[in-house]
C-alpha cells in the first residue's frame, strides 16, 4: 500500500471515528433512550397530601411548554442541534431550530433532512446569520435553548426577558484539570489528550482548558505529554490527519493573539507551530503561565493548554473557585480524601475524577453549567424535563367539608386551622379538645 493511500485511509478513519462517536452514536443513544423511557417519563408523578386537605390526592403532570427555539453551535453541529430537539419532541413541543452559520454545510444539510424526515407542521429549520437570529429573538417563545458563548448568551437572555421567556443556556468556561502526584501518568495524559485535542482540537465546551499541578510534578507531566502527543500526532502534528483544523480565520487570529502575548510566548514548552493557510495550530503546552495573561482570562476553545504551578495540590481548589464557575472540572488522583474535598469544594457544571469529558455520554447525569457556564441541564430525562412544564394537580371530592375553613373565623377555628397546617398530630388533638396553645 502506498504512503498516500495509507494517509488517505487514516484520514477517513479519523473523520469517521469523530463523526460516528460524537455526532452520530451519542445522538442515536439519545433517541434510543427517549423511545425506551418516554412511556415512563410521561406518567404523572404522585405527590403526598397534608392532613389540611384530606381527603385528597395529588400529582405532577408533565405538559409541553409550547413553541420553543433552539439555537445551536458549530463545533458539534449535528449533536448540539438534534440532541435538544429529541427532548423537545419527546415533551410534545413545536420548535424552530437555528443551526450555526459558522458551519454552513451542516446547517444546509440539517434543513434538508428535517424537511424530508420530520413533521414540518411542528418542526422548522431557519438558516441564516446575525440578522436571522436577531429576528427570531424578537419573537415570543415558550422557551429558548441556546448553546454557545457567554457574550451571545447575554443577548439571548436580554431578548427573552422582554417576553418573560425561560432560557436554557449551555455555555462553557475555563474547565480545569488538577493533577496530583502518584497516579498512572501515562493513562492520565492520554485521557487529557483525548479530551483536549481529540475533541475537535480543543474546540469543545468541556475541553480541558488548563492544568494545575505542583512544581515538583510538572516536569514529569510535561515529558509524558510530549511522548504521548508525538505517539498520537507524529513529529509534525500539522501534517496529522487526526488533528482538526481551527474553524475559521477569526478564531485562528484569536488563538494566535493569545499565544503571541509577550508574557506568554516564552512559556511554550511544546508545539506552537501554525499553518495560517490551512487554519491549523499544533497541540501546544505552555508551562508556568501568569494568571493575569490573556490566555488565563478567557475560554481558550482551541489547542493551547497552559499549565499553572502550585506548591501544594490543595491550593488548586481556591485558585479554581476564585474564577467563574466552569462547565466541567477534572481531577486525577488516587487520594480518597482529595477526591472528596474536590467534589465538595469545587463548584462546576460537572465533575469527573480520573478522566475528562466522558460524563457527556452518561444520559443519567444532567449536563449543564452553573453561573457563567450556563443554566439549566439536559440529556436523557433531563432533556424531557427541560422542555416540560410540571403542572400541579390536586383532586378532591365533596366529602370531608369542614366548617372551620368558612367564616366567621373564631379563635377556636383559628387554633384548629393552625394545628392542621403547621403542627403534628398531637397538637391537632390538643387543638380540637381546646387544651392550651398550639
TrEMBL record:
Keyword Membrane: yes
Residues covered by the Aldehyde dehydrogenase domain: 58-393
InterPro entries reported in the protein's UniProt record: Ald_DH/histidinol_DH, Ald_DH_C, Ald_DH_CS_GLU, Ald_DH_N, Aldehyde_DH_dom, Aldehyde_DH_NAD(P)
Recorded GO MF terms: aldehyde dehydrogenase (NAD+) activity
Active site location: 170, 205
Protein known as: Aldehyde dehydrogenase
Membrane-spanning segments: 6-27
Sequence similarity: Belongs to the aldehyde dehydrogenase family.
Reaction(s) the record says it catalyses: an aldehyde + NAD(+) + H2O = a carboxylate + NADH + 2 H(+)
Keywords: Membrane, NAD, Oxidoreductase, Transmembrane, Transmembrane helix
